[in-house]
Predict the structure.
Amino acid sequence: MNTSTRYRTTLFAAFFLAVITLTAVLRGMEMVAATSIAGIMTILSAYIWSQTQRPSLHEPPKPTHKPRLPKRHAHHRRGATDVDELEP
């Protein structure tokens, strides 16, 4: 699913639930209105999550980070020994 399809679907569902909310408020059905408002909030949070976690196949891939090599400590130097010899 590409970005524009996801966006249109989200807008359509939010608009539908907004119409339900307004109708419920005008008819005095507060429970239906509260439920549809919760649905709008769920749809919007799902849209935001889908855009950040599941990008579309038609979007360019995000750059990946190269794995870092572990830092080398002083005792890992080439030729270093555990015991240093003292010069006379």
About this structure: The mean pLDDT is 78.
